[in-house]
Specification:
By secondary structure, the chain is mainly alpha-helical. 92% of the residues lie in helices and 0% in strands. It has one domain. Helix 1 crosses helix 2, helix 1 packs antiparallel against helix 5 and helix 2 packs antiparallel against helix 3. The longest helix is centred in the first third of the chain and has 43 residues. The two termini are 36 Å apart.
């Protein structure tokens, strides 16, 4: 009976742990896509239709890239290779949405947009580690207050 209970709890823990990780990927992808989209909307001076389409495309791309980065963490060459394919598809989609002038501006600034994106993700990682440290301190304080 104890083995069944322990096994059941382990299964639930695994399922909820996987759900929490997947949810975190979605949140990071949304923040990433929104940040990049807002910058592109401002700099390329997009109209409402273009802005909505760019947000959609960036959301899909950010989700794919975030998943690739999580899946192949530590293998920078594989990450770069797979992300390059995803970004090439995004370029084709943008070509259909943006005017010729806007697309030329975007295409010339792709490296800058990639840099902005990577800096933003780095800032999210720093915030995440700071929040984790804060949560650990709060847990220690809670334990100390429970003991007292």
């Amino acid at each position: 009976m104890k083995k069944l209970l322990v096994t059941t709890l382990m299964v639930f823990g695994t399922v909820f742990g996987a759900f929490a990780t997947g949810n975190n990927i979605t949140v990071v992808a949304e923040k990433r896509a929104n940040h990049l989209s807002e910058q592109m909307i401002r700099e390329l001076r997009l109209n409402n239709y273009q802005a909505n389409k760019v947000r959609e495309i960036n959301m899909d791309v950010a989700a794919q890239i975030t998943e690739i980065e999580q899946k192949h963490e530590g293998n920078e060459q594989l990450i770069a290779e797979q992300c390059k394919k995803v970004l090439a598809v995004r370029d084709l989609e943008f070509e259909d949405i943006l005017s010729t002038v806007q697309y030329n501006d975007y295409f010339g600034d792709r490296k800058m947009y990639s840099k902005v994106d990577s800096e933003f993700v780095s800032s999210l990682d720093k915030q995440g580690s700071e929040n984790m440290a804060t949560n650990e301190k709060a847990d220690k304080n809670a334990i100390a207050s429970n003991v007292n």
